[in-house]
Amino acid sequence: MTNPQERQPMQSFHLSPTGGPALVIHGGAGAWSSELSLEASGSYQSGLADAVAAGADVLGRGGTALDAVTAAVVSLEDNPLFNAGRGASLTTAGTAEHDAAVMDHEGRAGAIAVSRCARNPVLVARAVMQRTPHAFIVGPSADAVRGWGLETAEPDYFVTPARQRQLEDVLAARTEASRSGTVGAVAVDGRGRVAAATSTGGMVGQSEGRVGDSPVIGAGTYARGDTAAISCTGEGEAYLQGVVAHDIVSRMRYAGSSLEQAVTVTYDVELESRSATGGTIAVTPAGEVLIAHNSPAMFAGYWNPAGTRVFA
Ligand code: ASP
């Protein structure tokens, strides 16, 4: 069996700038076979295709990048196969704790961590950005979520039998199944505005209260209007320590690297040295697309006016 944490040479899929809109999503990086063991691969393909369609629909109607990434991530959060929202990975206590972040082309950001009651964590992160003076709220209360006009759910809503079995296996060390997952989306709209969103239940069997890179602006999620929008998935501690999403954008800004060079060098410098695996999706304001990972596999998909594809 392939060790899910085994690093592979970086694999990437790249599309040149089109000058038009584009959307990229991911459904987590890990080991193909063990991710798929939750259910047949066709279900993942259709879940990814649904999420791409949700975001593409927004962009196709002339909507904003922020609306597109939000719509795509909501679709993945509602799908119990992916590690976000319903069906998120469970902590050692068997509970779901969600982290999420959004960032737009104006440099505005919103994030939540250790959320236990928001049905769609990405919408709460967006509410933090748009409806509060804050950028990051830990443990948003049900009253606050409802006060922003968003839905709450009981703890049981998030917990699926497949995730309970996965947690038991991981805690009993009966499996080498990937302990990670996470979903995310990046987009550029018809006016060249970029946005990024990431949402996760974290690592299977993580300690209660543990927060990974996904909601931390600059680590797992980052966007700059003149450079790129980035969403990452993988071993969160390394992405936090390497401030990976920000590092990619900084290499483009300060070193003049291309998007592909910036991702490759950041992975070499920040992740290889930490023996960490994962993946990154990115778009630029000009419509360039990149999907890259050094894990055995990554669930992903993209849309632009020239075509669409899902990787599962
Ligand atoms: N990066 C996430 C975390 O560490 C997990 C993942 O993407 O697989 O919480």
Shape estimate: globular
Q: Spell out the helices and strands N to C.
A: EEHHHEEHEHHHEEEEHHHEEEE
- What ligands can be seen in this structure? aspartic acid
Mean pLDDT level: 93
Number of helices: 10
How much of the polypeptide forms β-strand, as a percent range?
25-35%
CATH architecture: 4-Layer Sandwich
| Helix vs. strand class | alpha+beta
Strand order of the largest sheet: 5-4-3-7-6-2-12-13
CATH hierarchy, class: Alpha Beta
Number of strands: 13
Q: Output the CATH topology.
A: Glutamine Phosphoribosylpyrophosphate, subunit 1, domain 1
Number of domains: 1
Question: Helix coverage percent of residues?
Answer: 25-40%
Given as residue ranges, the uncertain stretches (5+ residues, pLDDT < 50) are none
Question: How would you describe this protein?
Answer:
- There is one protein chain.
- With 312 residues, the chain is an alpha+beta fold.
- It has one domain (11-311): (Glycosyl)asparaginase (Glutamine Phosphoribosylpyrophosphate, subunit 1, domain 1, 4-Layer Sandwich).
- The chain is 32% helix and 25% strand.
- The chain has helices spanning 32-36, 41-60, 65-78, 121-131, 142-147, 155-158, 161-171, 236-241, 244-254, 259-271; strands at 11-15, 22-30, 98-104, 109-115, 136-138, 183-188, 194-200, 221-224, 228-234, 278-283, 289-293, 297-304, 307-311.
- The strands form 2 sheets. It has an 8-stranded mixed β-sheet. The chain has a 5-stranded antiparallel β-sheet with strand order 1-11-10-9-8.
- A hairpin with a 4-residue loop joins strand 3 and strand 4.
- It is globular, with a radius of gyration of 17 Å.
- Bound molecules: aspartic acid.
